[in-house]
Amino acid sequence: MRPDMNPSTYARVAPPVDQPTPTLWCGEGRGSEESALDTETAVRLNCIVGRIFEAAADWSQLVRGLSAYGFSLQFEGSRLVLFNDQTGHGLCTCASLGHSFRALLARLGKPAVLADSGRLIPRPAR
After folding, report:
1. What is the crossing angle of helices 39-55 and 59-68, to 10°?
2. Angle (CA) 70 8 121, round 5°
3. Does the model's pTM come out above 0.85?
4. What's the DSSP call for residue 71?
5. Which domain of life is it from (predicted)?
6. Beta carbons of 62 and 110 less than 8 angstroms apart
7. What are phi and psi of 40, to 5 degrees?
8. Is 94 helix (H, G, I), strand (E, B) or coil?
9. Which is deepest, 18, 33, 64, 101, by most CB within 10 Å?
10. Alpha-carbon distance 27 to 100, whole Å?
11. CA–CA separation, 8 and 1 (whole Å)
């Protein structure tokens, strides 16, 4: 990712005139079925976060990796949803990006979750 498009920068600084405008991920109301993202947006999003999901060795790495790009994970009922931290919108379920909670649970173990919000957090150091 270009340095001028990281989450802390593009929120405050407009891109140069001759550069593309960064995507400010937003969400539409999702139904109970999965994602409200169109296919092209889902592919773009997966290009950004897919490698983070694949490279994570544990939940803490996944949460921190997503956070570096302005995303977080939170449960909505029994679904694990990817959120844009800047807008607060849930974008899509992780399953719609090819990373079901069941598969992540089998690979990464049990996540650390804030009880009041359902938001995943890095596991506290012991």
Report:
1. 130
2. 35
3. no
4. E
5. Bacteria
6. no
7. -65, -40
8. coil
9. 101
10. 19
11. 13
Q: How far apart are CA 42 and CA 28, in angstroms?
A: 13
What span, in angstroms and rounded, lies between the C-alpha atoms of 5 and 106? 33
Q: What is the token pair recorded at 35?
A: 């994602």
Note the pLDDT tens digit of each residue in 56-108. Answer: 999 999 999 999 999 999 999 899 999 998 888 888 899 989 999 999 999 99
What ranges do the domains of the chain cover?
Answer: 36-126
Dihedral (CA of 67, 71, 74, 80) sign:
negative
- What is the rounded distance in angstroms from the CA atom of residue 86 to the CA atom of residue 101? 23
Pair of tokens at residue 124: 């506290």
Residue of 123, 44, 60, 45 whose CA lies nearest to 90:
45
Token pair 């449960």: residue: 75
